[in-house]
Amino acid sequence: MFALKAPAKINLTLEVIGKRPDGYHEVASIIQAISLSDILEFEPAENFAFLCDSPDWKAEKSLVSRASSLFVSRLGAGGGARINIHKNIPFSAGLGGESSAAAITLIGLNHLLQADLPPGDLYHLAEKLGSDVPFFLTGGTALVSGRGEKVSPLPALPHYWVILLIPADMDTPGKTEKMYACLRPGNFTAGRITDDFISSLAHGDMKTLPDLYNVFERVAGQVFGGIDWYKEQFYLAGASRVNMAGSGPVLFSMETDKTAAEQIVQRLKQQGLKAILAHTLDSLGPAGFI
Ligand code: C5P
Q1: Is 161-279 assigned to CATH 3.30.70.890?
Q2: What confidence category does residue 202 fall into, taking pLDDT thresholds of 50, 70 and 90?
Q3: Going by CA atoms, what residue is nearest to atom 11 of ligand 1?
């Protein structure tokens, strides 16, 4: 048996450049892996069995089971595994939990079944599973483009504490699709915000973080009623800048000082809100074996 960490992500920039003929949207986004992670344990088994410590997790709806089927059909041979998931990343939050678990399933099965598929093959399987899945094969800091599946690693961001505020009762079926559908041409940008962020990263000019950007913040109120209230609570608790994670609804703030970050988390918790303290992660190669 071995275990792998499947980290969450935040988007430092998330620009939508336009709608594509295939119905997807062209994006330019800088994604950052963070320490909040699910843990996936892999054990040999004749057939596939999936277990999770969260009652809300359903194997048949999960990208983990889809990734497993895709992996064995690519091998063209039988194979199974028992995959036990310890869920820490909130569901449907904008933190990429499902996509990360799918990518780590591919890496774990490649190891467990001694399939030795090269990174390029894993990439092609990952892009079939979802636009955000390929990023999690490498993690760290990366530029993603296309519909999100084209990944270019970037120099690591300096270490930041990342406070996550998880709004309650905002579960929205088909959320990502709905968020994209809310966008209008006036929300599209040319990718310059992302380019400028990359220039700052390349010049090591990160003492103060450039402005973060997420196009979905423009339309979040249409899908997540009450999100502005959560934003306000975050600022009142002392956050310096609040942004939304991916297609939401989780909000985050990045802080350099650990004590300040801990105090913000504590204040949010005193309000009865769900807050988690994490930090940015450098790319550690393919995946974090535990
Ligand atoms: O790729 P994924 O399955 O995660 O995408 C979910 C939905 O989000 C897609 O069906 C599409 O409606 C929308 N989407 C989009 N443009 C992207 C990524 C996703 O329109 N770049």
Answers
A1: yes
A2: confident
A3: 177
Domain with CATH 3.30.230.10 in the chain: 2-153
Which ligand 1 atom sits nearest the alpha carbon of residue 146?
21
Which tens digits make up the pLDDT trace of 8-31?
Answer: 999 999 999 999 999 999 999 999
Give the distance (Å) from ligand 1 centre to CA of residue 132.
9
Token pair belonging to 42: 């892999």
User: Is the pLDDT score of 287 beyond 70?
Assistant: no
- What is the whole-number distance in angstroms between the Cα of residue 89 and the centre of ligand 1? 20
Place of tokens 């678990």: 101
Residue 197 pLDDT greater than 90, yes or no = yes
Q: How far is the CA of 222 from the centre of ligand 1 (A)?
A: 18
Residues of the chain with CATH 3.30.70.890: 161-279
Q: What is the mean pLDDT of residues 206-219?
A: 91
- Ligand 1 pocket residue status of 25, Cβ below 6 Å: yes
Rounded Cα distance between 30 and 12, Å, is 5
Q: Which of 107, 38, 47 is nearest to 81 (CA)?
A: 47
CATH number at 2-153: 3.30.230.10
Given the CA of residue 148, which atom of ligand 1 is nearest to it? 21
Q: State the Cα–Cα distance between residues 31 and 136, nearest whole angstrom.
A: 10
